[in-house]
Design goal:
Strands 1, 2, 3, 4, 5, 6, 7 and 8 form an 8-stranded mixed sheet that branches. β4 and β5 form a beta hairpin. The protein is of the alpha+beta class. About 5% of the residues have low confidence. 24% of the residues lie in helices and 27% in strands. The structure holds calcium ion. Calcium ion binds next to β7.
Length: 166
């Protein structure tokens, strides 16, 4: 009997681990996950990482989504990015013709969460967007950055009956 209990307990812990590893959280019809590791060194790699999860980079179209994502961030997992701490790619990118920022679905980013003074488009080379957390200073507000930047990323996928929600 004791052995059986042990087995149930181990199975339970294992499932818990899987659920955490999966790490998808739902909000308003979408699942989101923040990929903390490995840190990617370009927007393209972040896109690829989301595609591998049957997802796209997160389109943070509303303040509600922004607030939800901020509330779920694991601050402790954001500590060891040496080059530029605490940056996380989202799905906004500058359209090089109009210079406006667009989401991965081509809609324009009308509601934005820029940090004060951003976007700066420094050296005319900052066409991607990250949330940045440097404690209360930047509070996950957005920065335009080079698309070859070391950062984590957030993926989203629409919830459908095909996807299990953990
Ligand atoms: Ca900038």
């Amino acid at each position: 009997m004791q052995m059986e209990m042990k087995l149930i307990y181990i199975t339970f812990i294992f499932c818990l681990h899987l659920a955490n590893a999966q790490g998808w959280l739902s909000f308003n019809g979408y699942n989101y996950t923040v990929v903390y590791t490995p840190i990617v060194n370009s927007y393209a790699d972040a896109e690829f990482g989301c595609a591998a999860r049957n997802a796209t980079l997160a389109n943070v179209k509303t303040t509600e989504i922004q607030n939800f994502l901020v509330s779920t961030m694991d601050r402790n997992s954001l500590k060891d990015n040496a080059e530029q701490p605490y940056s996380i790619y989202i799905g906004a990118r500058r359209n090089l013709t109009t210079l406006e920022f667009q989401w991965t679905d081509g809609t324009s980013a009308d509601v934005t969460q820029w940090y004060g003074g951003e976007p700066t488009n420094s050296k005319g080379n900052e066409h991607c967007v990250t949330m940045n957390w440097n404690g209360a200073i930047t509070g996950f507000k957005w920065f335009d950055v080079s698309c070859n930047y070391n950062a984590r990323y957030i993926c989203q996928r629409k919830i459908s009956s095909k996807h299990l929600v953990y």
